[in-house]
Amino acid sequence: MLKNLISKQNILLYLKGVAMGAADLMPGVSGGTIALILGVYKELIESIESINLKSLRSIKKNGFSGFWNMINGDFLLVLFLGVISAVIIFSFVIDWLINEYPIPIWSFFLGLLLASIFILKKELRRWNVFNILLVIFSANVSFFLIQMTPINEEISIIYLFISGFLGIIAMILPGISGAYILIIMGTYSTVIGLIKDLLISLTNMQMELMIPTFTKLSIFVLGILLGLRIFASVLKWLFDKEHDKTMAVLIGLMIGALNKIWPWQQKYELVLANNTKILNKPISPFDYPANPQLTLAIIFFVVGVCLVYILDKRKF
Questions:
Q1: How far, in Å, CA of 121 to CA of 308, rounded?
Q2: 27 φ, ψ to 5°?
Q3: Helix (H, G, I), strand (E, B) or coil at 242
Q4: How is the chain split into domains, by residue range?
Q5: What 3-state DSSP class applies to 68?
């Protein structure tokens, strides 16, 4: 089986998976969009949808090899190996950048997200009052979801599961990033940190760190797997049958998240019924108490915008 996987076609497929995985780590760039550009989107959707009770029952009749062929197993395995490789490799880089250079990296993400909004705007075939209302409604939903996300608080296992379940939408539907969903839910930095901690604990055999980290990541991955199978059918139907309405909702969600990605944030306390919640609010770079790094921020913002437009124009 391994010998059959090593071919020029599968090496190219693996690299496509790497590109999708790298895209899903960056808010505003969709792994689904990359899958469309690279020509694997339709096969990916069909392969995921083929994992059902019918294919599982075929194991008894045709054996595992029959099941594997029915679900296009070689394709899924090679593609997702590429995705996982990218997540492992680039998680370290992004975690380091977020901790050491938060303003430039969030400026880069802001450029990605803004450019993606304008790209998606072109995908909406017809603007009407209802679609505009959907944009406004989903923008408000996104904004208020952001206000509800925990900041500097312990994120529960259930919340991680929900984040994984919703975040996998990016692998199925072009136009929205999984990292963007995690940012909305306030778990982006947490998940990136968990991946880094797990790899470090495995390298150094630190069991006291490995077990809780592996447990949290396993719950997150379980949410991804469940969401992947459920959303594969639902989102494909939405994208095919209700294209404009789906695009309008996506655009609104992304607009509502802009304040979360704004590089210059100030923490403040909100007291409700004797409970204190720490929130962030965007402020002007000129009011930022530390070095606003304005020149670097502008450079990284422009790079983010250009990257989205290059990916949009590039045909493979």
A1: 14
A2: -60, 135
A3: coil
A4: 92-313
A5: helix
Q: pTM for this one?
A: 0.65
Tokens of 210: 């490995």
Please provide the size of the chain in residues: 316
Which residues share a beta bridge with 271?
Answer: 276
Extract the runs of DSSP E, i.e. beta strands, from 169-240: none
d(CA 27, CA 106): 9
Task: List per-block mean pLDDT (blocks of 10 residues) for the chain, which spans 316 residues.
Answer: 65 86 71 73 82 82 85 89 85 77 87 80 81 89 66 71 82 67 77 82 78 88 85 74 81 79 79 65 86 92 85 58
Three-class secondary structure of residue 218 per DSSP: helix
Measure the CA–CA gap between 61 and 76, rounded to whole angstroms. 22
Report the C-alpha gap between 250 and 303 in whole angstroms.
23
Both tokens of 316, joined, read 């493979």
Site of tokens 């998606």? 120
Burial class (CB in 10 A: 0-12, 13-18, 19+), 128: exposed
Question: Residue 257 and residue 76: Cα distance in Å, rounded?
Answer: 31
What are the residues whose beta carbons fall under 8 Å from the beta carbon of 310, sequence distance 6 or more? none
